[in-house]
Amino acid sequence: MGRSLKKGPFIDSHLREKVEGMNARNEKKVIKTWSRRSTILPDMIGHTIAVHNGRKFIPVYVTEQMVGHKLGEFAATRTFKGHAVKAALERAAGVAGAPGAPAGGAPAGGGAPSAPKA
Fold it and tell me: Which of 38, 48, 94, 102 is deepest in the core (most CB within 10 A)?
C-alpha cells in the first residue's frame, strides 16, 4: 500500500537538509546516504547520490524520470550471475560445435541416463 497523499512523500531529514544546502550553495557534489527508503523529489534532479547497497555505495545520477521513486530502486542489492542450467547447455552446445569434435555431436539431453546412485 502506498503512502497517504495527505502526508506527502517520505524523505529522511538528514538527506533533505543536505540536498537543500547544496541547492542553496549551487554545488554538485556526491551525497553519500544509507537512506534507500527516501523518495526522490524534484529538488534532487541533477545531483549524484551515492546509495548504499549493503556492501558499497552505488552512484545514482538523478534525472526527471526518477521523481517519485525510491532511492533503493536504483542501487541493486543482489548480484545476478546468470542461470546455471542455461550456461551448462551453452557450454555443451559449444563443445559439440567445436572443430575437432565428433561428427555426431553431443545429444541435447546429456546422453544416456546413468544408473541410479545407491
Answer: 38
Question: ∠49-54-58 over CA atoms, to 5°?
Answer: 30
DSSP assignment of the chain equals ----TTT-----HHHHHHHHHHHHHT----EEE--TTPBP-GGGTT-EEEEE-SSSEEEEE--GGGTTSBGGGGS-SS-----HHHHHHHHHHHHHTSTTS-TT---TT-SSPPPPP-
pTM equals 0.68
